[in-house]
Amino acid sequence: MSLSLSDTCALSRRGLLKFSLGASAFLTTVGLGASLSGCSSSMPASGYAMLRSADLLFLRALLPVMLEDAVTVEKMPSAVADTLQTLDNGLAHLSPEMLKLTRQLFDVLGITVTRGPLTGIWGSWENASSEDIREFLDRWENSSLSLLRMGHSSLQQMVMMAWYSRAQSWAHCGYPGPPNI
């Protein structure tokens, strides 16, 4: 008996679960391997307590895209710098396990061998266009892999918490600020 192409390409629920489990194991292994092999420096970048140089390359490309509707073009450089400082402060207050997971996420996004297939951005983050980054975010948000959806959610929550905790963001969303006591 021979199988037709449509029979071999159909993805069953069991097949999808196996694929998802394999992808999860792959990403965890690559992230852990990068951390252990020294592919990612564990030393913070100058002026930061937790964020590393490779993290900053990624975040400096990501933040303007995520903040574009909330910040004018003229104010974007200072908004990105301030948001990075707030994010760094937030990371400094994470539990060691949560910080480890966050660094693994940043490592997966920083290494070309994983960044390319997972994000569609094969070159450096510095050279990625805003459209490329939007496509990456959309790809992760709507992925059939729960691991990528969780990665998107983590990135979005970290960035939005860092941005909206700053007083300069409040006017955009109509928040007058905390009441005077």
What does this structure look like?
It is globular, with a radius of gyration of 19 Å. By secondary structure, the chain is mainly α. It is 68% helix and 0% strand. Helix 3 (53-67) crosses helix 4 and helix 3 packs across helix 5. It starts with a helix and ends in an 8-residue tail after the last helix. It has one domain (15-170). The chain has helices spanning 5-9, 13-37, 53-67, 76-92, 96-110, 112-119, 130-141, 146-164, 167-173. It comes from Pseudomonas silesiensis.
What structural keywords apply?
181 residues, single chain, 68% helix, mainly alpha, 9 helices
Task: Provide a quick synopsis of the model.
It comes from Pseudomonas silesiensis. With about 180 residues, the protein is mostly helical. It contains nine helices and no strands.
